[in-house]
Specification:
This protein is an all-alpha fold. The chain has three domains: about 1-40; about 40-75, no CATH class; about 80-155, Helix-hairpin-Helix base-excision DNA repair enzymes (C-terminal) (Endonuclease Iii, domain 2, Orthogonal Bundle). About 50% of the residues lie in helices and about 0% in strands. Helix 4 (about 85-95) packs across helix 6 (about 120-130).
Length: about 160
């Protein structure tokens, strides 16, 4: 671990990779503090475009497109679609993206295709549906959403 406070490590034990996560979170906080002149605030992102803010966030080691998307959409209501494992899997199964689309490319494709005003609710719906019905190992296709919209190999 860097020169940072090792007391943060146990906080991340249950999530795995605790040393790496503690270091990256502390690095991110240091970067934010340096950028703001001493504050731990991302408020400056409000005045940036989606692309500028996405690039700024993903330039911090450990922050990828998903984390950047979550910050932009959930905190700042900026139209950038965060793609987690559920969103990626369901976007393929519902044929919203081509089957060979990487998770990174899925961010761009879904950001372009999902209307701005629906991004937050659509993201939540995909996650909820992915957790309840359409898991990675077991797709329960006997539900109204799948009966109407899905043509995956499981349905």
């Amino acid at each position: 671990m860097n020169d940072y406070d090792s007391r943060a490590v146990p906080l991340f034990n249950t999530a795995g990779l605790s040393n790496q996560k503690a270091t990256r979170i502390q690095d991110a906080l240091r970067t934010i503090r340096e950028h703001t002149g001493g504050e731990y605030s991302l408020g400056f992102i409000k005045g940036m475009s989606v692309e500028e803010s996405r690039k700024w966030l993903t330039n911090i080691k450990g922050i990828g497109p998903k984390t950047a998307g979550i910050v932009l959409l959930f905190r700042f209501n900026k139209p950038y679609f965060p793609v987690d494992t559920h969103c990626h899997r369901l976007a393929k199964r519902f044929q919203l993206i081509p089957p060979d689309t990487s998770a990174e490319k899925a961010h761009d494709l879904l950001t372009e295709s999902v209307p701005d005003e629906l991004m937050y609710s659509f993201h939540r719906l995909l996650i909820d549906h992915g957790r309840e019905y359409c898991t990675a190992r077991n797709a329960d296709c006997d539900n109204p959403v799948c009966r109407r919209f899905c043509e995956c190999e499981y349905c």
